[in-house]
Amino acid sequence: MAALAPLPPLPPPFKSIQHHLRTAQEHDKRDPVVAYYCRLYAMQTGMKIDSKTPECRKFLSKLMDQLEALKKQLGDNEAITQEIVGCAHLENYALKMFLYADNEDRAGRFHKNMIKSFYTASLLIDVITVFGELTEENVKHRKYARWKATYIHNCLKNGETPQAGPVGIEEDNDVEENEDAGATSLPTQPPEPSSSSAYDPSHMPSGSFTGIQIPPGAHAPANTPAEVPHSTGVTSSTVQPAPQTIPAIDPALFSTISQGDIRLTPEDFARAQKYCKYAGSALQYEDVSTAVQNLQKALRLLTTGRE
Fold first, then answer.
1. CB atoms < 10 A from the CB of 39, how many?
2. How many of the other CB atoms lie within 10 Å of CB of 81?
3. What is the C-alpha to C-alpha distance for residues 287 and 280, in angstroms, rounded to an integer?
4. pLDDT at residue 33 tops 70
5. What's the confidence (pLDDT) of residue 203?
6. What Pfam families would the database entry show (predicted)?
7. In sequence order, what are the residues at sequence separation of 6 or more whose Cβ sits closer than 8 angstroms to the Cβ of residue 15?
């Protein structure tokens, strides 16, 4: 992919989108679709913050140039031309990154790459909002990932051993309210083996989400959707993909007999198509469980008119 023209310095009002733009830069070569939507999110958010002052207008204009250049380069990519496919791609990518970090966490392997994966997953869930409102599940994953990144980072920083898996402490702050949630030293590019740069969420508020039930990520391969950056000095053992747990199929879903009074709306067909796209995207990552779950949702909707 051709290099993009650099952006001018980030105006202070746009501080809240700096980490999304850094994530875009990290994915320019790794996954251009993710990079495109990270910039689109930054553009939409920036427009809401300030589109009138000269400094902000200039920055947004250059960011728009980047988006147009990316869209031209990716013109034949369905994830760019079709919103449903793009949403499925981004959602599965974010989930894959979340599950990598969650697998590492539950196995007691605490290191900088898994902290960054948790935090980056939360940023990518932010980006999913370019397609509309987040599902309740995505909102919970975003909160959990940001809090977990903070918790593990602070434990390692203080020489303490983090507790694996969901941890219950007082929920006195909501990290979503802090637009500049940490990562102040996130590298613009993935760290090289000799680099000492590290993700630092030290400014994130503490908090927990004791009511959130995050399922173990054992059914997903224990690696991120992209190549995990080289370790920055913290040694972790090699992760082997865990066996996949395929959900049981509801026999009732095989009954396709119409009840006679079922009337599917255009929105119903659109949702069913969306679930099928999600399933196809999940299969690209060999995530059988997610694929089956989405196909079940589509079949249930088409045969009963309900989700």
1. 26
2. 12
3. 10
4. yes
5. 36
6. Vta1, Vta1_C
7. 179, 180
Q: Give the count of domains, the chain.
A: 3
Measured distance CA(301)–CA(130) in Å, rounded: 25
Residue 38 has pLDDT above 80, yes or no: yes
Q: How many Å apart are CA 176 and CA 174, to the nearest integer?
A: 5
The whole domain housing 299 covers: 266-304
**Better-scored residue on pLDDT, 90 or 252:** 90
Distances, alpha carbon 185 to alpha carbons 17, 18, 91, 199, 270, in Å = 14, 11, 26, 5, 41
Structural domain contains residue 38: yes
Let me know: does 305 contact 262? Beta carbons within 8 Å: yes
Please state, for a pLDDT cut of 90, what percent of the chain lies above it: 50
- Residue 101 sits in a domain whose CATH number is 1.25.40.270
CB of 217 within 8 A of CB of 239?
Answer: no
**Residue at a domain's end among 96, 123, 158:** 158
Predicted confidence at residue 183, as pLDDT, reads: 44
Range with the lowest mean pLDDT among 20-34, 85-99, 253-267?
253-267
218 domain residue, yes or no: no
From 41, 56, 81, give the residue that closes a domain: 81
Q: Give DSSP secondary structure letters for the chain.
A: -PPPPPPPPPPGGGGGGHHHHHHHHHTTTT-HHHHHHHHHHHHHHHHHH-SSSHHHHHHHHHHHHHHHHHHHHTTT-HHHH-HHHHHHHHHHHHHHHHHHHHHHHHTT---HHHHHHHHHHHHHHHHGGGGSSPPHHHHHHHHHHHHHHHHHHHHHHTTPPPPSS---------GGG-TT-S-TT--SSPPPTT-------TTSPP---TT--PPP-TTS-SS-SSPPPPPSS---PPPPPPPP-PPPPPGGGG-----SS----HHHHHHHHHHHHHHHHHHHTT-HHHHHHHHHHHHHHHHHS--
Mean pLDDT, rounded, for 39-68? 95
